[in-house]
Amino acid sequence: MKTMKKIFSAFLMLTFALFFAQEKPMFWQDIQNFKKLNLENPPAKNAILLVGSSSFTKWTDVANYFPDKTIINRGFGGSRLTDLNDYAEDLLNPYQPKQIIIYCGENDFADNDKLKADVVVERFKAFYKKIRTKFPKIEVDYISIKYSPSREKLWPQMKEANKKISDFMKKQPNAAFIDITKVMQDTNGNVRKDLFVEDMLHMTPEGYRLWTSVMNPYMK
């Protein structure tokens, strides 16, 4: 009987462990990985902090594009502005940057194709407010949502969100809207598909090179 009780207790413990492991919030592991990186290599002060989704995550060699800058890349693939808000403390508190650059919002629309642009704009404003609470005077820049060919049906909402975020950022001190959409177009104004890898969502090195050409004047 005692043996059966022990087996049953062990089974319950394992069940609870598996349950709670499955209940961890989305992107929890990404945040833990950032914490581990910070322990192994304490983040430099006065760096440029990148936060956002996979366009940053996949820019693994971003430091090579800005060799005279200190870059901390904290992009995590698939993230939405809601996730930046949820993890704001983890994304901001460990760092003392001189500049924060954000690329996020594309996945908000991909997650819900009925989502209104105003909702995404308000999500961004909420995150911007959290940044300003902690860093009232540093430079904060937002990179426009790119028009990925695989998400063409979402372009109207994305264009509206870009316009409204641009208008908002123009009114903020020490802030800028970095528009990368034009440099990703051909001479006829069409999105250049050759700047994307096979999934027509993520970019080639040439795409990042073009981003760099637009971002350079804003880099502190």
From TrEMBL:
Gene3D superfamilies: SGNH hydrolase
UniProt-listed SUPFAM superfamilies: SGNH hydrolase
Domain SGNH hydrolase-type esterase: 60-210
GO molecular function terms noted in the UniProt entry: phosphatidylcholine lysophospholipase activity
Parts of the chain that traverse the membrane: none
Pfam families xref list: Lipase_GDSL_2
This protein's UniProt keywords: Signal
Signal peptide residues on this chain, from the entry's feature table: 1-21
Listed InterPro entries: Ester_Hydrolysis_Enzymes (IPR051532), SGNH_hydro (IPR013830), SGNH_hydro_sf (IPR036514)
Alphabetical list of PANTHER family matching this protein: SGNH HYDROLASE-TYPE ESTERASE DOMAIN-CONTAINING PROTEIN, THIOESTERASE 1/PROTEASE 1/LYSOPHOSPHOLIPASE L1
Listed name of the protein: G-D-S-L family lipolytic protein
Organism name: Chryseobacterium mucoviscidosis
Classification lineage: Bacteria, Pseudomonadati, Bacteroidota, Flavobacteriia, Flavobacteriales
